[in-house]
Design goal:
75% helix, elongated, mainly alpha
Length: 140
């Protein structure tokens, strides 16, 4: 029976270490982005970004890899399981914002600024912010 508990504790310890590494990677990635957006900025853009991601996912001219990435992001956001539980103040929602920012950056870079502009439902200022977050150069 002791061996069984050792295995269970080892697996749980491994999962804890993996979770800590993922949180660290997300934190480093967020800090590494020049002019990274604050949680407030991301929340302000959230409705328009959600519509943008939905439109990009439905666009057949966007590569299948981007559309799969967007579907995985949607599943993560709908899942009750988070890297950091939402009941932890600030950090609980920050992990979702960081994951969305990373996915947005990935998807919009691969879809291209033309696709983002074509599907952007919000204001020109919001589009400029999203292009800046994604590391895309806004063209005139």
């Amino acid at each position: 029976m002791t061996t069984g508990w050792t295995v269970v504790l080892s697996v749980l310890g491994g999962l804890l270490v993996l979770w800590l590494v993922l949180v660290l990677v997300l934190w480093i990635e967020q800090r590494r982005q020049p002019g990274g957006a604050s949680l407030r900025d991301l929340l302000r853009l959230a409705p328009d970004v959600a519509r943008l991601l939905k439109r990009l996912a439905a666009d057949r001219t966007v590569s299948i890899g981007v559309r799969i990435w967007l579907a995985v992001l949607l599943l993560y956001l709908l899942s009750p399981i988070d890297l950091i539980p939402d009941f932890i103040p600030v950090l609980g929602y920050a992990d979702d914002a960081i994951v969305v920012a990373i996915a947005l950056r990935f998807a919009t870079r691969r879809a291209g600024s033309d696709a983002v502009k074509r599907h952007w439902p919000g204001t020109p200022e919001g589009l400029s912010a999203v292009l800046r977050l994604a590391g895309l150069k806004p063209s005139a």
